[in-house]
Specification:
The complex is a heterodimer. Chain A is of the alpha/beta class. A nine-stranded mixed β-sheet of chain A has the order 7-6-5-4-3-2-1-8-9. The longest helix of chain A has 17 residues. Chain B has a single domain, classed as Arc Repressor Mutant, subunit A. In chain B, the strands form two sheets. Chain B has a three-stranded antiparallel β-sheet, with helices on one face. Classes of the chains: A alpha/beta, B alpha+beta. The interface between A and B is medium-sized, with 20 and 15 residues.
Chain lengths: 382, 92
């Protein structure tokens, strides 16, 4: 993906291989670590079916091959079947990323007819009460039933469970559940601390000891299920010494279209200051990807400062995550402080230690801030 | 235990994978949940013939007809073994 040599200032952009279509920010769940922006309630004006079809066609022409229908809860869009059919006919590999709430057997069949390739269902926990508490919805039994039906209709099925301090000690139970449901892939995705989860960090960030136990349990199941079920455990990057290759580089392969038509190099990018994100209502996908200032801002390595600029790994991890660099250091051009070469790394380690050495705050002392319209409105006004 | 791979085996793509010609990449690709494998020319030619009905020897015959004079048997078997190890296909 990268050009050789260090003099490359503005490399020719690659192809937007991965198109994430966030069809709506509306969601029946209220997970306190939701990846939608805190002020999602501001964006009510969703793209219509014709807009989406134009975006799908334009991105496919640019080389997009993977398409994720996401949200919010994409099942809330009554045109989902139509969009899947169009996408499949264009040649996309179509992924539906859902909570399962709003699904039933008739829709599962209709998606199959439309050509849907794969469904990813989220669980909040393997314990019914905890799952329903975290999601703010009595959804556990329905999810279970839907996952069974997906296997009946022979979909490849990914189960996604976001892992944090409240459910990490149940790793064995969680994995037992995924085996019972015959998942093909299991994504154990540690909470990433942006937006909602940053607000709830004290209640979500696991301790190092919890993490070690959970990793041992995941490794055990990985060995046991080899060749039958693939288990991917992404540990919290706050405990790493090198940053994640966030989005595989800014504007390198990922293109997110938000419900209002804003085009983003990653779904969290709206929090970065000084950027105006182009909208598909006003611009073509081609212009957005190749020419818009926002997509060029952190593409390549010209924007990098030290220690990234002279780092031999700069084309491997791209200096980590721009949003995390901004949140933790105040400057998005800095190295992601997860990297131990960053002068801000020690402060991050101290912060993580301070949070995890305190007992889990009780729900009365520091209640979880759930992701819902009321909280979003209050936070948008603040 | 998996059967040893032979010229009589019949490969079939796993349900998780879809093979297609990708114009933008100028090659065949295997698509699967949230991922894509770009295939070399020869890998694409072999997998194109994997339909769950044609045996390995049938695949080799097809390739020989299209690319006369190229020695194939060992290479095809080796590739199919790798593809099987990667979970791209199974033998029916």
């Amino acid at each position: 993906m990268t050009t050789a040599g260090s003099a490359s200032s503005s490399p020719a952009p690659g192809k937007p291989l991965w198109l994430l279509a966030e069809l709506t920010y509306r969601c029946p769940l209220q997970c306190p670590y939701c990846s939608n922006p805190l002020d999602f309630a501001r964006y009510k004006d969703e793209l219509d079916t014709a807009d989406w079809i134009r975006v799908l066609r334009e991105a496919r022409k640019m080389g997009a091959a993977q398409l994720g229908f996401s949200g919010g809860e994409p099942l809330l869009r009554p045109d989902l079947e139509e969009l899947i059919a169009e996408a499949r006919q264009l040649g996309y590999y179509t992924n539906l990323i859902t909570s399962g709430v709003g699904m039933d057997e008739a829709r599962i069949k209709a998606f199959k007819t439309a050509g849907l390739d794969h469904i990813q269902v989220s669980f909040q926990a393997s314990d019914e009460a905890l799952n329903n508490y975290l999601g703010g919805t009595d959804s556990f039994r329905h999810k279970y039933e839907m996952a069974r039906l997906l296997k009946k209709y022979e979909y490849p099925m990914v189960l996604n469970i976001v892992i944090h301090r409240q459910n990490i000690d149940q790793m064995d139970d969680i994995l037992r559940m995924t085996v019972d449901l015959e998942a093909d892939y299991v994504e154990l995705a540690s909470t990433q601390y942006y937006g909602w989860s940053k607000l709830n960090e004290a209640a979500l960030l696991p301790t190092r000891e919890q993490l070690q136990r959970a990793e041992a349990s995941a490794r055990d199941y990985q060995a046991r299920m080899k060749g039958k079920m693939k288990i991917i455990y992404v540990v919290p990057d706050y405990y790493e010494n090198r940053p994640k290759a966030c989005m595989n580089g800014w504007g390198a392969i990922f293109l997110t279209i938000a419900p209002d038509g804003s085009a983003l190099p990653c779904h969290a990018a709206r929090q970065l200051p000084g950027l105006t994100f182009p909208n598909v209502r006003e611009h073509s996908v081609e212009w957005i990807w190749n020419d818009s200032p926002a997509f060029q801002r952190y593409r390549g390595d010209d924007w990098m400062k030290e220690p990234c600029r002279s780092c031999p790994d700069k084309h491997k991890d791209f200096g980590g995550c721009r949003c995390q660099a901004f949140m933790l250091t105040g400057d998005a051009c800095n190295a992601d402080p997860v990297c131990d070469k960053s002068p801000h790394h020690a402060a991050l380690v101290a912060q993580v230690d301070a949070i995890t050495s305190r007992p889990l705050p009780s729900s009365t002392e520091k209640p979880l801030v759930f992701r819902n319209t009321r909280n979003s409105k209050a936070l948008s006004e603040a | 235990m998996p059967e040893p791979l032979s010229l009589d085996s019949t490969p079939k793509l796993s349900a998780m994978f879809r093979l297609q010609w990708e114009e933008a990449q100028n090659c065949h690709v295997l698509l699967y949940p949230e991922g894509m494998v770009k295939l070399s020319g020869s890998a694409g030619e072999i997998l194109k013939r994997v339909d769950g009905q044609t045996s390995v020897s049938g695949i080799v015959d097809g390739l020989k007809a299209q690319f006369p004079g190229v020695p194939l048997d060992a290479d095809v078997l080796k590739f199919l073994e790798v593809a099987h190890d990667n979970g791209w296909l199974r033998f029916v």
